[in-house]
Amino acid sequence: MCHQRKRPALFDHLVGAREKHRRDRKTQRVAGVLSNFLTHQRAHLLEPSVSHRDSRLGQRVPELERGHHLESKLHNGGTAMRSNFRIAMVMLAGVALGALAVEGLHAQAKPPVYQVVEIDASNMDAYLKDYAPKAQAAIKAAGGKFLAAGKATTIEGEPPKSRVVIQQWDSLEKIQAYRNSAAFKELLPLREKLAKFRSFVVEGAPQ
């Protein structure tokens, strides 16, 4: 009967270490291959994203150009609106000035009217002191102007009353408005107490 020789434990240990070294090297090679593959795939996957971003950027360039164009149009439109507004204001001012000029010419073309008042005062001193200043102030406030006031000298015909006043007004309507005013009506009691009046209106002659 043959007896197998028992291998030493050191031999087994060396064999195991050798096998382990081979497995580790193989594992490292596989890991390296996998690492290279993943790196390549990662770079390949990133390229479409960059390309897509560049494509989106390329698409945005016309949008940005349109935005700048729109902003330029808005700016030019705002400038044009301001220019048109100034032109419109100048035109309106011209129309207003023209209307005022026409009104002024019309007013000049229409002569004023003159009111002649003959006054027969029962007490001339009281009339001149108590009534005349108040009446003159009210008449001036209503638009009337005093051209003459005092004693008249007869040249022909019957003599006028003791005092004559000549007033200038823009129109007969102005005189009527004054006689209907509260200021005139407030003076009526004193007016009727101190004097009697005769008045008439003469149209002015065109110049």
Tell me what the structure shows:
With 207 residues, the protein is an alpha+beta fold. It has two domains: 101 residues; 94 residues, Alpha-Beta Plaits (2-Layer Sandwich). Helices cover 68% and strands 15% of the residues. It is built from four helices and four strands; from the N terminus they run H-E-H-E-E-H-H-E. It has a four-stranded antiparallel β-sheet with strand order 2-3-1-4. Helix 2 packs antiparallel against helix 4. It starts with 8 loop residues before the first helix and ends with a strand.
Q: Tags for this entry?
A:
207 residues; 4 strands; alpha+beta; Alpha-Beta Plaits
* Tertiary shape: rod-shaped
Helix content percent band = 55-70%
Order of helices and strands: HEHEEHHE
- Specify the number of helices: 4
Strand arrangement, major sheet: 2-3-1-4
How many separate domains?
Answer: 2
Main sheet summary: 4 strands, antiparallel
Show the helix and strand layout.
Blueprint: H1 9-109, E1 113-121, H2 124-141, E2 145-150, E3 163-169, H3 172-179, H4 182-194, E4 195-203
Antiparallel strand pairs: 1-3, 1-4, 2-3
Helix pairs in contact: 2-4
Q: Brief description of this entry?
A:
With 207 residues, the chain is of the alpha+beta class.
